[in-house]
Amino acid sequence: MSDTLRSRAKADRRQAMLDAAAHLFAERGFARVSLEDLGAAVGVSGPAVYRHFAGKQAVLGALLVEVSEGLASGGRSVVDAAGSDEDALAALIAFHVDFALANSDVIRVQDRDLDSLTDTDRHDVRALQRAYVELWVDVLSRLTPSAERAVLRTRAHATFGLINSTPHSGSTRGSSQAQTRAILERMAAAALRA
User: Fold this and answer.
1) Contacts with 91 (C-beta within 8 Å, 6 or more apart), sequence order
2) What is the DSSP secondary structure assignment for residue 117, as one 8-state letter?
Protein backbone atom coordinates (compact mmCIF):
# COMPACT_ATOMS: atom_id res chain seq x y z
CA MET A 1 0.00 0.00 0.00
CA SER A 2 1.42 3.41 -0.92
CA ASP A 3 1.96 6.11 1.67
CA THR A 4 -0.86 8.12 0.10
CA LEU A 5 -3.32 5.22 0.33
CA ARG A 6 -2.16 4.42 3.86
CA SER A 7 -2.60 8.05 4.92
CA ARG A 8 -6.05 8.14 3.34
CA ALA A 9 -7.08 4.92 5.05
CA LYS A 10 -5.85 6.27 8.40
CA ALA A 11 -7.76 9.52 7.89
CA ASP A 12 -10.89 7.59 6.92
CA ARG A 13 -10.63 5.37 10.02
CA ARG A 14 -10.14 8.45 12.23
CA GLN A 15 -13.22 10.09 10.70
CA ALA A 16 -15.22 6.90 11.16
CA MET A 17 -14.25 6.95 14.84
CA LEU A 18 -15.36 10.57 15.18
CA ASP A 19 -18.67 9.80 13.46
CA ALA A 20 -19.23 6.78 15.71
CA ALA A 21 -18.28 8.82 18.78
CA ALA A 22 -20.80 11.52 17.87
CA HIS A 23 -23.55 8.92 17.61
CA LEU A 24 -22.57 7.01 20.76
CA PHE A 25 -21.99 10.12 22.89
CA ALA A 26 -25.31 11.59 21.72
CA GLU A 27 -27.16 8.36 22.42
CA ARG A 28 -25.59 7.44 25.79
CA GLY A 29 -23.61 10.45 26.99
CA PHE A 30 -19.84 10.78 27.08
CA ALA A 31 -19.46 9.17 30.51
CA ARG A 32 -21.33 6.03 29.44
CA VAL A 33 -19.26 5.23 26.36
CA SER A 34 -16.03 3.26 26.67
CA LEU A 35 -13.14 3.06 24.24
CA GLU A 36 -14.18 -0.54 23.69
CA ASP A 37 -17.66 0.67 22.64
CA LEU A 38 -16.10 3.15 20.27
CA GLY A 39 -13.71 0.62 18.77
CA ALA A 40 -16.48 -1.94 18.34
CA ALA A 41 -18.60 0.63 16.50
CA VAL A 42 -15.93 0.88 13.80
CA GLY A 43 -14.80 -2.73 13.84
CA VAL A 44 -11.57 -2.46 15.84
CA SER A 45 -10.52 -3.23 19.40
CA GLY A 46 -10.71 -0.52 22.04
CA PRO A 47 -6.91 -0.24 22.28
CA ALA A 48 -6.74 0.37 18.51
CA VAL A 49 -8.43 3.73 19.13
CA TYR A 50 -5.14 4.85 20.71
CA ARG A 51 -3.54 4.78 17.25
CA HIS A 52 -5.64 7.85 16.47
CA PHE A 53 -6.44 9.49 19.81
CA ALA A 54 -4.76 9.75 23.22
CA GLY A 55 -7.99 8.63 24.90
CA LYS A 56 -11.73 9.11 25.05
CA GLN A 57 -11.46 12.75 26.13
CA ALA A 58 -9.23 13.40 23.11
CA VAL A 59 -11.93 11.91 20.88
CA LEU A 60 -14.49 14.30 22.36
CA GLY A 61 -12.08 17.21 21.96
CA ALA A 62 -11.34 16.39 18.33
CA LEU A 63 -15.03 16.02 17.59
CA LEU A 64 -16.12 19.36 19.05
CA VAL A 65 -13.05 21.39 18.08
CA GLU A 66 -13.14 20.17 14.46
CA VAL A 67 -16.87 20.86 14.15
CA SER A 68 -16.35 24.35 15.57
CA GLU A 69 -13.49 24.94 13.13
CA GLY A 70 -15.73 23.80 10.29
CA LEU A 71 -18.50 26.20 11.30
CA ALA A 72 -16.12 29.13 11.61
CA SER A 73 -14.31 28.52 8.32
CA GLY A 74 -17.48 27.49 6.48
CA GLY A 75 -19.31 30.57 7.70
CA ARG A 76 -16.41 32.77 6.57
CA SER A 77 -16.46 31.14 3.12
CA VAL A 78 -20.23 31.69 2.83
CA VAL A 79 -19.89 35.38 3.67
CA ASP A 80 -16.90 35.86 1.36
CA ALA A 81 -18.78 34.28 -1.56
CA ALA A 82 -21.94 36.37 -1.08
CA GLY A 83 -22.65 39.25 -3.42
CA SER A 84 -24.34 41.40 -0.76
CA ASP A 85 -24.99 41.44 2.96
CA GLU A 86 -28.57 40.28 2.32
CA ASP A 87 -27.19 37.35 0.35
CA ALA A 88 -24.63 36.69 3.08
CA LEU A 89 -27.31 36.54 5.76
CA ALA A 90 -29.50 34.20 3.72
CA ALA A 91 -26.49 32.02 2.96
CA LEU A 92 -25.44 31.92 6.63
CA ILE A 93 -28.94 30.84 7.61
CA ALA A 94 -28.96 28.11 4.97
CA PHE A 95 -25.45 27.03 5.98
CA HIS A 96 -26.40 26.71 9.66
CA VAL A 97 -29.67 24.91 8.90
CA ASP A 98 -27.72 22.44 6.73
CA PHE A 99 -25.27 21.96 9.59
CA ALA A 100 -28.01 21.36 12.17
CA LEU A 101 -29.91 18.89 10.01
CA ALA A 102 -26.74 16.95 9.18
CA ASN A 103 -25.16 17.05 12.65
CA SER A 104 -27.91 16.43 15.17
CA ASP A 105 -25.69 14.04 17.14
CA VAL A 106 -22.91 16.60 17.44
CA ILE A 107 -25.38 19.24 18.64
CA ARG A 108 -26.61 16.90 21.37
CA VAL A 109 -23.03 16.10 22.40
CA GLN A 110 -22.13 19.80 22.52
CA ASP A 111 -25.18 20.57 24.65
CA ARG A 112 -24.59 17.79 27.13
CA ASP A 113 -20.85 17.10 27.22
CA LEU A 114 -19.03 20.39 26.64
CA ASP A 115 -17.93 20.40 30.28
CA SER A 116 -16.21 17.03 29.74
CA LEU A 117 -13.63 18.65 27.47
CA THR A 118 -10.17 19.53 28.70
CA ASP A 119 -9.76 23.20 29.61
CA THR A 120 -7.71 23.76 26.45
CA ASP A 121 -10.27 22.13 24.14
CA ARG A 122 -13.17 23.94 25.82
CA HIS A 123 -11.31 27.25 25.40
CA ASP A 124 -10.66 26.47 21.72
CA VAL A 125 -14.30 25.50 21.10
CA ARG A 126 -15.56 28.66 22.80
CA ALA A 127 -13.12 30.89 20.88
CA LEU A 128 -14.17 29.36 17.57
CA GLN A 129 -17.84 29.71 18.49
CA ARG A 130 -17.35 33.36 19.43
CA ALA A 131 -15.69 33.98 16.05
CA TYR A 132 -18.65 32.31 14.32
CA VAL A 133 -21.14 34.43 16.25
CA GLU A 134 -19.22 37.61 15.47
CA LEU A 135 -19.29 36.72 11.77
CA TRP A 136 -23.08 36.78 11.96
CA VAL A 137 -23.06 39.97 14.05
CA ASP A 138 -20.81 41.69 11.49
CA VAL A 139 -23.27 40.92 8.69
CA LEU A 140 -26.26 41.95 10.81
CA SER A 141 -24.57 45.19 11.85
CA ARG A 142 -24.01 46.15 8.22
CA LEU A 143 -27.68 45.47 7.51
CA THR A 144 -28.91 47.36 10.58
CA PRO A 145 -26.16 49.84 11.48
CA SER A 146 -28.29 51.56 14.13
CA ALA A 147 -28.62 48.38 16.21
CA GLU A 148 -26.25 47.75 19.08
CA ARG A 149 -23.90 44.79 18.62
CA ALA A 150 -25.09 43.29 21.90
CA VAL A 151 -28.66 43.22 20.56
CA LEU A 152 -27.52 41.66 17.31
CA ARG A 153 -25.49 39.08 19.24
CA THR A 154 -28.63 38.18 21.20
CA ARG A 155 -30.53 37.76 17.92
CA ALA A 156 -27.78 35.50 16.54
CA HIS A 157 -27.72 33.34 19.67
CA ALA A 158 -31.52 33.07 19.67
CA THR A 159 -31.42 32.01 16.03
CA PHE A 160 -28.82 29.34 16.78
CA GLY A 161 -31.05 28.10 19.60
CA LEU A 162 -34.00 27.89 17.24
CA ILE A 163 -32.09 26.07 14.52
CA ASN A 164 -30.10 23.84 16.89
CA SER A 165 -33.27 22.70 18.65
CA THR A 166 -34.09 20.44 15.69
CA PRO A 167 -32.20 17.41 17.06
CA HIS A 168 -34.30 17.61 20.22
CA SER A 169 -37.66 18.05 18.51
CA GLY A 170 -37.72 15.19 16.03
CA SER A 171 -37.64 17.81 13.32
CA THR A 172 -38.45 15.57 10.40
CA ARG A 173 -41.26 13.54 11.99
CA GLY A 174 -44.33 14.20 9.91
CA SER A 175 -42.52 16.47 7.49
CA SER A 176 -39.82 16.07 4.91
CA GLN A 177 -36.34 17.41 5.45
CA ALA A 178 -37.03 19.98 2.71
CA GLN A 179 -40.11 21.19 4.60
CA THR A 180 -38.16 21.34 7.85
CA ARG A 181 -35.35 23.25 6.14
CA ALA A 182 -37.79 25.79 4.66
CA ILE A 183 -39.55 26.31 8.00
CA LEU A 184 -36.26 26.79 9.86
CA GLU A 185 -34.91 29.22 7.26
CA ARG A 186 -38.07 31.36 7.36
CA MET A 187 -38.19 31.37 11.16
CA ALA A 188 -34.48 32.17 11.45
CA ALA A 189 -34.78 35.09 9.03
CA ALA A 190 -37.74 36.43 11.01
CA ALA A 191 -35.92 36.02 14.34
CA LEU A 192 -32.88 37.89 13.06
CA ARG A 193 -35.05 40.80 11.95
CA ALA A 194 -37.07 40.95 15.18
Assistant:
1) 78, 79, 81, 82
2) S
Nearest alpha carbon to residue 116 among 191, 57, 175 = 57
What string of DSSP letters covers 136-184?
A: HHHHHHHHSTTS-HHHHHHHHHHHHHHHHTHHHHTTTTTS-HHHHHHHH
- Residue 36 CB coordination number (10 Å): 13
- Please report which confidence band the pLDDT of residue 107 belongs to, taking 50, 70 and 90 as the band edges: very high
Chain-centroid distance, C-alpha 65: 9
Amino acid at residue number 103: N
Domain ranges of the chain: 57-193
The Cα–Cα gap between 194 and 85 comes to 17
Residue 188's pLDDT band (cuts 50, 70, 90): very high
- Topology of the domain covering 57-193: Tetracycline Repressor; domain 2 (1.10.357)
Average pLDDT estimate for 12-20: 94
